[in-house]
Amino acid sequence: MDPASLKKLNAARAGRRAVALVTDLGDGRDRVVVEGDEVAAALGDSVAKAFRSGKSGVLELENRSYFINVHIPPPRLVVIGAVHISQALAPMAKLAGFDIEVIDPRTAFATPERFSGVRLDAEWPEAVLSGRPLDPYCALAAVTHDPKIDDIPLKAALVAGCFYVGALGSRKTHAKRVERLTSMGVSADRIERIASPIGLDIGASSPAEIAVAILAEIIKALRTRSAVSAERAA
């Protein structure tokens, strides 16, 4: 590998950006493609598909063979609210390959006994996220029903370009949320990205069923996302 390519590859991975090393198996030449870079014609479509799937492999295209080696940052799921839904969602998200963490300043809810084996922060979300900022490979689910806890991380997720932003609540509740976020300076097109009511519409009623619906919607968003960076979202 060319040293310049290796440097670019390592920098992208360190910055939690999706990156692919595309090698022409005929002549051995390679190039590093960061998600969002322009790649011409059919090769560009194949690279984009590899970014969405996260799968590396050999590609036969126009009488040439390429190996696309994809590196996707581990998807991170941040749940705001240590509620019953979160208790069901956390183990399922871990099984699905997400780095899961739960944040809730309410110490009566955010207890190790309720979230064994899960990263748990009994602090205000803005304090936690200042040290571990959100990025485009993060999903955020706000499930406290408390604007004092939910609104600031929702804004942070929209500004960071998270691939998924969801919030629990009825349409009436969400309408009030929209008013608050608008007053906080969040643009309408960003607010429209919030999935609310949260989760796929599968008729879920119990906390476990709602957790299934949320995780399914997050996975769908991850696998169908467009190449969005925090800089483009800003």
TrEMBL record:
N-terminal signal peptide: none
Gene3D superfamilies given in the database record: NAD(P)-binding Rossmann-like Domain
Domain of life according to the entry: Bacteria
XdhC Rossmann domain mapped to chain residues: 77-218
Organism: Oricola cellulosilytica
Stated name of the protein: XdhC family protein
